[in-house]
Design brief:
single chain, mainly alpha, Cytochrome Bc1 Complex, Chain D, domain 2, two-stranded antiparallel ribbon
Length: 362
């Protein structure tokens, strides 16, 4: 009897040993995490964050991964960061960015910061209503990344890394165009510049040099051709407010009607009154975002100031305030120009340019 029981017990142990092991649960199981992202913006006014795309820690993280992901391009050689380099204000030091096919883009790459404070759409001509709309266009542009959204979705969907991060950000492992655009929007919304020397000056933390202070006065003083000694550069007319822009589209006198090569805003509105008008960019970090203008025609700030001082071209849609200065120019001396540039350099935000939170996660 004892032998019989022993055999039964032995057989049971053998059978149990032959059973497949229970799979161990993943050590880092991806779960949805809606923890809000704490946006820091210093003394800038509180931004309006889209109600349908609030910033979350995991959403911003996914957006950063996508921003630096070369799989978004046709041949895996380029990412958004290829043409928007943090060290130069998330712009491109080339006049025109070079796409995966070796072709030049049509306009200079715009810098990325303080996008939450833009209320007049995106791209130089404003053809993208929301930042999420803008985010997908370079991927599909034949002159840029030249890839299809279908291929991007397939590539990301085959990655465990991305499937897990889509779960954390959106509670769904399946990437799609909408989630990609929302994540990219979140990351770009998280990029904020508010710690320049000028910001610290306004906060009473630092002083401006004599040249910087004189440049500041010129920047904000109105143009007055009748009293040259007190006439200013009147830059704040177009580049004013906390973000040093005016949420408008303007023709700033680069060309005459006969020489327009790019119709700008008119391509979007179909209104001839918008011909050769382009988005007025922020002048924050302007000293590091050369070349300048929508076509990158000016290599230096000196050239930019010379344009406004003495190089404005007449045209039917030029900004009236600029037209008023065209005949006599801004009356700026060589010292005035140097001081104005000294002030513009105080708008450079070294913290933003070197913030690891905006750098590559790979």
């Amino acid at each position: 009897m004892k032998t019989h029981l022993y055999l039964i017990l032995l057989l049971s142990l053998i059978i149990a040993a032959c059973q497949p092991d229970e799979p161990e649960p993943p050590k880092d199981l991806a779960v949805y995490d809606a923890t809000p992202f704490e946006l820091e913006y210093g003394n800038l006014p509180p931004p309006t964050i889209p109600g349908d795309n609030p910033l979350t820690i995991q959403g911003v993280k996914l957006g950063k991964m996508l921003f630096y992901e070369t799989q978004l391009s046709k041949d895996g050689s380029q990412s958004c960061a290829s043409c928007h380099n943090q060290k130069v204000g998330f712009s491109d030091s080339l006049r025109f960015s070079i796409g995966v096919e070796g072709l030049e883009g049509g306009r200079q790459a715009m810098p990325i910061f303080n996008m939450l404070w833009h209320s007049n759409e995106f791209f130089w001509d404003g053809r993208a209503h929301l930042l999420r709309d803008q985010a997908l266009k370079p991927i599909q542009d034949p002159l840029e990344m030249n890839e299809t959204l279908e291929n991007v979705i397939a590539k990301l969907g085959a990655s465990r890394l991305y499937k897990d991060q889509f779960i954390r950000a959106f509670n769904d492992s399946l990437p799609n165009a909408e989630r990609i655009s929302l994540a990219l929007e979140q990351f770009m919304h998280s990029i904020v510049s508010y710690e320049s020397k000028y910001d610290k000056f306004l906060a009473g933390e630092v002083s401006l040099t004599e040249s910087e202070e004189r440049g500041r006065e010129l920047y904000f003083a109105e143009y007055n051709p009748f009293f040259p000694m007190i006439s200013g550069a009147d830059c704040q007319h177009c580049h004013g407010g906390d973000n040093f822009e005016n949420n408008s589209y303007m023709n700033n006198g680069l060309d005459t009607d006969m020489n327009f090569k790019d119709f700008g805003r008119e391509k979007v509105t179909m209104n001839p009154a918008d011909r050769a008008k382009f988005k007025v960019p922020s002048l924050r970090n302007v000293a590091v975002t050369a070349p300048y203008m929508h076509d990158g025609r000016f290599k230096t700030l000196e050239e930019v100031i010379d344009h406004y001082n003495e190089g404005l071209q007449p045209s039917s849609t030029i900004e009236p305030a600029l037209e008023n200065t065209r005949e006599k120019g801004l009356l700026l001396s060589a010292q005035d120009k140097a001081d104005l540039i000294a002030f513009l350099k105080t708008l450079t935000d070294e913290v933003y340019l070197n913030n690891e939170a905006y750098g590559s996660p790979f």
